[in-house]
Amino acid sequence: MSSHDSHALVDLNMAHPHHAPPSQAAADLKRKRSSSHENMHPAAPHPKVAKTHNHLQINYLVRHLDSDLPLITNDDTLPNILSLLSDYQGVLDRHESMACNLGARPLGPILIKRFERLFDGPPRVLKSHGKDGTTVTWLDVVEFARNKPEQFQLGQMSEGVRVCQFYTKQCRVQISEEDFVLISSGIPQKMIPPQPIIEDEEKELGTIEILEKNLSQICQLADQGEFK
Q1: Is residue 112 classed exposed, middle or buried when 0-12, 13-18 and 19+ CB atoms within 10 A define those classes?
Q2: What is the pLDDT of residues 76-102, one digit of tens each?
Q3: Domain boundaries, the chain
Q4: Residue ranges of region Disordered (predicted)?
């Protein structure tokens, strides 16, 4: 591989604003921490500059892929490296946790599973106007009830019983009177873990540092013409 190709390899992987090329400082590569971290280590104010992009919060609670992605190494073949970089880019574009997709087990999803067990089954979606595969979770329902209480009301009748119907995520959703009473009590809201969880952030930063190291080694081998 030529030197030009090796740099293109880095550009492909690091196109997302959450990460910078391995040649830059590690601080530029790390994803955004929560405000609690920033308050612990106050820094001198920086001159105001024009914003070129927005930093979006990592969603530690969901992932698109069912199976874990392998960690890229310099033992991989060039086609496999390019395939993995494409998979990694998809993780970044969806604002998912890289650590979770590489096999780590964040605490957030574990707590959410415990939260979901408060309910007998998933919310009932009566009609969906969104993309195929759109789902509504109990976390979505509880957040909707908190943000739009005027639309979260009990009173409509379905099959002779009172239910609560509302529209969220381009879906018409229905829940039972029992679930409505439970959510209205505020207890489920208290069980939702705060985001982001410090332990999950630390796992994410550690994973990115390992990826940075491995990618730097791959780029060095590519510059030396080791990949054909």
Answers
A1: buried
A2: 998 999 999 999 999 999 999 999 999
A3: 3-33+58-106+197-223, 119-191
A4: 15-51
